[in-house]
Every structure is written in structure tokens, then in C-alpha cells.
Amino acid sequence: MRILVCVKRVPITGGRMVLTADEQAIETKHLGFTISPHEECGVEEAVRLVEAKGGEVVVLTLGPEEAAEQLRDCMAIGADRGIHLVSAEEWDGQATAAAIAEAIRADEPFDLIVFGNESADAGGYQVGIRVAYAVGLPVVTGLKGLTVEGGRARCEQEVPGGRDVYDVSLPAVVTVKEGLNLPRYPSVPAKLRAKSKPLDARPVERPEPKLEKLRLVVPEGSRKQAEVLGEGAAAAPRVVEIMRELGVA
Amino acid sequence: MTVVVFMERADDELSQQALTLARSLGGEVSAATVEGPYAPGAWAAAIVAAAGDADIVGPGSDRGNEVMAHVAAQLDLPLAANVTEVRGDELTRIRWGGTLLEEARLHAGRRLMTAAPFAFPLSVDSTQTLVLTPELGGAVAVVDHVAPDTGGKVSLADAKVVVSGGRGVGSAEGFAILEELAALLDAAVGCSRVVTSAGWRPHTDQVGQTGTKVSPDLYIACGISGATQHIAGCKGAKKLLAINADREATIFAHADYAVVGDLHEIVPAITAELRKAK
Fold first, then answer.
1. Which positions 32-91 of B are in contact with A (Cβ < 8 Å)?
2. Distance of alpha carbon B210 from alpha carbon B227, whole angstroms
3. What value of ipTM does the predicted structure carry?
4. Which residue ranges of chain A lie beneath pLDDT 50?
């Protein structure tokens, strides 16, 4: 199987959102970076499928030069090579999908194209679906279960009260959610091997955004003044009192 | 007709919130439901056909965002997901699961958007409702439904009380004291992403941006630092009680009630106090 997984570099935000002075981005001076959690499961699933059935896992990102770091991380998990569409700017979902579709056409055929259900940062819920239309493939979203057999994919999507099941023929686009699997931690030898795997970096030019970000705003109102009920085990009677007041005990 | 609202169901809360957003756009609003098995692409095509050149709004649910992304792809128009406010062609939408907001401008002749959950009041009065019948053809559609055995336990999403643990719990076995307290309160046990990544609990227990979003009467956060990833999942709780050894922990900034100290002593003490009273 040839599988493409698309990932996005995002900061590890911790407890507080701090913006840059121009309000265009999160201040990341003191932050590490990763890929969106859903995508970590996408990479893991692709690597498991190729480990079981043979083939190739290609990982693609659209992002700044530093995003090469995230592609190497994915290669340490087991992806075979990387495609890096290099742009320092932030792209909207429509433009992102168009650029990815073009990269796919230059590298076809893929049996499976994998996205996270939504990115951790922008959360546009649309790139995977738009790419599917652009390359003319069926798409199933929000996968928590995936079985590939005989050129078909059985896809399970979590819904209230259980899981809905879809059955699509490959090639197909899927978007996945965290919980699909438990991603592995890469070994040190795997990290070293990842450094010498092929990475194709090419600059891309951002078109004018149709959904244009004007500024970011940290929402107000999350700063509550908590009532301190006490310290240590001695606080237990007061906690139970509160539970009674709230009608839950 | 100038705005069409995709309703998952006429009585669906998130859809009724989308209807409120639609009414804030000005102009005549029509609500549309779709019949038959769920088939996002085919449903979107039916909505596109019915809408003419109207703006289209959907709920900020999994299905609402999915159907609207199909609508946007079919029309090759921008889509603003999870919008909290609209000002002409400018809007505010959520990022990072609602822990950050983005002000943005749509550059298109038509507005496509979904309403962020719980950003708008419900519209419960009757609106003219279109019932659409999609052309299924060979479209991707739900073919089966499986319901896992929950062992009779109350689900995270529905629980009135959630007892949740983070890194401070220390191990998979450490959750026994949370389980014990939860059983007394008829509560569900939740956890943070650190815990599921470590394999201490299954992902189905995760509360957060990439886990379950909960809205209990009381959320008890034990040994949880309060990362934005987690807050995105529990900010719907009516009251939050934080138990944490670190008095500087971010979680206290989101808490209604605070207990400072070791959860391994405090949680069993609460359990004992509840038992004593019964």
C-alpha cells in the first residue's frame, strides 16, 4: 500500500495563551512544537498498515522551514519519506487543500490519504474533505476504527450511543481522531535513521486568503476566583457540604 | 429566502443555536432537515440544490462541520467553522477548542459557516422547515451501527458528576481511589491527555479538545494542571472543583472550588466523609 499522511506543525500550548504583539499568532518563544494529536494517530495507523501489508508511508506538511522537524518526528515513527511545502505564512483551509491536492497529483497513486479530523490550532474541519473533492476520491471523517481488507476500508466513526460504520473502496481519503490507536514513542535508533530519510522540500506561494485572519483574541472570563475549601484531607467535610449544596451527593 | 440552515434534527440543540446565528445575519431564514441514511456528500448536494444563492449555516457538531465542509467543497467557497459572532462579512470564530478566538473576514459572495456550540441561545419557535430527500446513488453513507457494551456505567458525556485525574494521579493503579469516589457519586471517571498517552486509561475516558467535551453539574479535577487542551473539554461544567498539590497550577484559575494538597490523601478522605454520612 502507498499511504500519504498530512500533518501540521502546532505549538504545545500549555496552560495559558499568550499572543505576539501584532496579535497574529501565539507567542511561541518558550514553547515546543508537535503535530495535532489526531494526526499522531494518523501516522501511527499508516505505519502499522504498511508494517502489516508492505508498501510506503509518505508524510506531507505545509508549513515553515522549522516544520521539517515534525516530518523527521513522523519518519522516526516509521514514515519512509517526507514532502515539505514550505511557506512561513498561515494558509486558510481552501488554499491549503488546493496546494496539497497539487502535491498529490504529482506523486500519485496513493491507496489511502490520511488527515487529522481537524487541526489543533485553526480547527477548520475541512482540509481533508476539500482534498477528496479535488482529487476525486471518496472521504470518511472522524475515524476511531479502520480495517483495510481486499481493496476496501471499513471505517468506524464515534457517534452518540456507539459507532457508525462506513465501507468504502480504495483509494480513499480518511480523516482520523485521537483514540484510533495509541501512538508509539520512537526509539533512539529510529530517530537517527529518520535523519537520513528522503525529504523533498519545495517553496509554495500562498494565494490571497478567502477566509482572512484579522487578529487573534484571548477570550475573557476564564479567570475565576476559586473558593478555597481547605488544605489536605481536612478539607473533606467542606467538600461534601458543597456537593450537597449542588445536589450531587 | 436568503439564509438556509442545515438542521441535524428539528429538535437538536446545536442546530437550534445555528438557527439563532442565521437569524442574526438578517434576511429570510429557512431551516432544512435531510431524510434517509447519513451520507454527508449527498446531504450537502441536496442542501446546495435547495439553497440557490443563499447563505448556508450549520451546527458546530461533528456532522454539522462535516456536511458544511462538503457544501464548501462542492461550491468552492470559504467556510468559517465554529463561529461565535457575525458582523457583515467579518466574524469571530473559535480556535484551539475555544481557548482562543480569531477575528476573520470572509471574501466571498456568500457566507458559509457553522455555529460554535453553546455560543448562541436556542431558537425553539417554529420556522418554515424544508425536508430534503438526497440522491444517494453510490454516495458514501452509513451502512451499519455498532453499540459497544458500556457495562451499565454512566457515560462521560451524560454524567452529572465527573471525577477526573491527571498526571498527579501517578499511575494506572492510582485511579482506584477516583473510581471509588465516582461509584459513590454515580459519576463517570475522566482523565487528561497525559494519562491516555501514558496508557493508564483508555482514550474513551479522555476529557479535552481531542477527547470528550463534558458538561456535568460538578467536575472534580484531581492532579490536573489545567492545560488548554484539557480546559477545552471541561469548560462546559457548571462547577469545577480542583484538587492539586501545586497552588500555582493553572487549573485553579478555572476552578470554582479549590483544595490544595495531595490528592492521594484528599480523595479517600472525601470518600470516607460521604460514606460516614450515608
1. 38, 40-41, 62, 65-66, 68-70, 72-74, 76-82, 90
2. 13
3. 0.95
4. none
